[in-house]
Amino acid sequence: MAESTTAVSPCGGSAPSGSSSGGAAGTGAEGAAQGGLMGMFFPLIIFILIFYFFIIRPQKKRDKQHSNMIAGINRGDQIVTVGGFLGTVREVRDDTFQIEIAEGVRVRILKSAVQTKRANTNTNATNENQGAAS
């Protein structure tokens, strides 16, 4: 008597071990390999999207805001440098500012060394005094 054994395929189906399905077995293996390949790339794609939306995009936004802030600095504006110096812009050139950090002390800095532009405190104090007098 011949015994019949059953082989279980990765797709969940079963076929007798003695029967050969020809091209169908090869196609099933390729389909499983392609599914496995998509299963491997899906987390990588998700990771890239998260990286883009949480790191790259916000950094580009900050860089654009900083560039616009530097482009808007004019003579007489108060700025803070990356080194922590407070100064008033006395001259604007293509890639540098000449700032006055104390009476008679003027230094030339690169535009990229500007961290922030300070609000004019004299204008704010004047507006508060006028509001209190009303």
Short account of what is shown:
By secondary structure, the protein is α+β, with helices and mostly antiparallel strands.
Polypeptide structure, described:
A 5-stranded antiparallel β-sheet has the order 6-5-4-3-7, with helices on one face. The protein has helices at residues 23-71, 121-133; strands at residues 6-8, 14-16, 78-81, 86-92, 96-102, 105-110, 114-118. Helix content is 46%, strand content 26%. The protein is rod-shaped, with a radius of gyration of 35 Å. The chain has 2 helices and 7 strands; from the N terminus they run ββαβββββα. β1 and β2 form a beta hairpin. The protein folds into 2 domains: 21-67; 74-133, SH3 type barrels (Roll), CATH 2.30.30. It has 134 residues and is of the alpha+beta class.
Instruction: For the record, give the distance between the C-alpha atoms at the N and C termini, rounded to a whole number.
Output: 112 Å
The helical percent reads: 40-55%
The low-confidence parts are 123-130
CATH top level of the largest domain is Mainly Beta
Proportion in β-strands:
25-35%
Summed over residues and divided by their number, the pLDDT gives a mean of 79
Count of separate DSSP helical elements? 2
Question: Judging from the principal axes of the Cα atoms, what is the shape?
Answer: rod-shaped
Helix/strand class: alpha+beta
Q: Can you count the beta strands?
A: 7
What is the gyration radius calculated from CA atoms?
Answer: 35 Å
CATH architect. name of the largest domain: Roll
Strand order of the largest sheet: 6-5-4-3-7
CATH topology of the largest domain: SH3 type barrels
Main beta-sheet strand count, sense and barrel state: 5 strands, antiparallel
Helix-strand topology string:
EEHEEEEEH
Q: How many separate domains make up the residues?
A: 2
